[in-house]
């Protein structure tokens, strides 16, 4: 299977085969970033230990922790992250995840737009 299959009524992506892109949190493999979709994207993110605090003006993010342990900073508050933890981050919330071997699934709504990423 190729990285993504795009059909009229569905799309399929293999995140492991998508090249990683640097992001404030680490490295992100971004699926469903094509012009045929505007609803949401899905990112497999490997969090770096020196991730950068940032926020979005439009986008809401849903995080789901897959592997590792660490914490997330949300508007200055620290919360632990372990596998199975879910986080909803609304627009305007200054945030960053930090951890060792921390891997998350991130679902931005609407689809990720790099122009909606601001340093805090």
Any idea what the CATH superfamily is called?
A: Jelly Rolls
Just give the CATH class: Mainly Beta
Q: Look at the helices and sheets and give the structural class.
A: mainly beta
As a whole number of angstroms, the C-alpha radius of gyration is 14 Å
CATH topology: Jelly Rolls
Helical residues, percent: under 10%
Q: Pick out the low-confidence regions.
A: none
- What's the story with the biggest beta sheet? 7 strands, antiparallel
Overall number of domains: 1
What share of the residues does DSSP label as strand, in percent?
over 45%
**Do you know the CATH architecture?**
Sandwich
State the distance separating the first and last CA atoms. 39 Å
The total count of helices amounts to 0
Mean pLDDT: 95
- SSE sequence, one letter per element: EEEEEEEEEEE
Please report the total strand number as a whole number.
Answer: 11
* Shape by Cα distribution: globular
């Amino acid at each position: 299977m190729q990285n993504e299959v795009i059909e009229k009524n569905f799309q399929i992506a293999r995140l492991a085969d998508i090249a990683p892109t640097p992001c404030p949190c680490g490295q992100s493999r971004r699926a469903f970033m094509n012009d045929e979709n505007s609803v949401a994207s899905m990112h497999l993110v490997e969090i770096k230990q020196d991730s950068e605090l940032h926020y979005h003006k439009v986008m809401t993010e849903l995080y789901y922790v897959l592997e590792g342990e660490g914490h997330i900073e949300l508007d200055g508050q620290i919360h632990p992250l372990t596998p199975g933890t879910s986080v909803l981050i609304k627009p305007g919330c200054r945030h960053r995840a930090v951890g060792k071997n921390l891997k998350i699934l991130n679902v931005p709504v609407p689809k990720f737009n790099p122009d909606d990423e601001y340093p805090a």
